[in-house]
Amino acid sequence: MSQSLYNHLRLNVFPTPYCPGCGHGILLGAVIRAMDDAGIDWEKTLFVSGIGCAA
After folding, report:
1. Per-residue model confidence (pLDDT) at position 2
2. CA atoms within a 13 Å half-sphere pointing along the CA-CB vector of 1
3. What are the DSSP calls for 1-55, one per residue?
4. Each residue of 2-54: pLDDT tens digit?
5. How far is C-alpha 50 from the geometric centre of its chain's CA atoms?
6. Would you say residue 55 has pLDDT above 60?
7. What are the sequence ranges of the domains in the chain?
8. pTM above 0.90, yes or no
9. Alpha carbons 8 and 23: distance in angstroms, whole number
10. How far apart are CA 51 and CA 34, in angstroms?
11. Which of 23, 48, 17, 47 is closest to 35 using CA atoms?
């Protein structure tokens, strides 16, 4: 796992609530890396998930 992911995830809730093989975890990792690379302010960011398996 890249260092930028460790900086932004709560490791105490691993494994993630996403089902094995689900694309949500992959997408979350990609978004975290992109936000980190772009220098987006995390204090002004909110992630919202649906009512499916990630609820």
Report:
1. 59
2. 14
3. --HHHHHHS-GGGPSPSSPTT-HHHHHHHHHHHHHHHHT--GGG------SSTT-
4. 567 777 777 787 666 677 777 887 888 888 889 888 999 988 988 777 666 65
5. 14
6. no
7. 3-44
8. no
9. 19
10. 25
11. 47
Distance CA 20, CA 18 (A): 7
Which residue is listed with tokens 């709560």? 10
Neighbours of 13 (CB within 10 A): 8
Of 45, 46, 55, 3, the C-alpha closest to 24 is 55
State the amino acid at position 15 in one-letter form: P
- The tokens describing 41, both together, are 């302010």
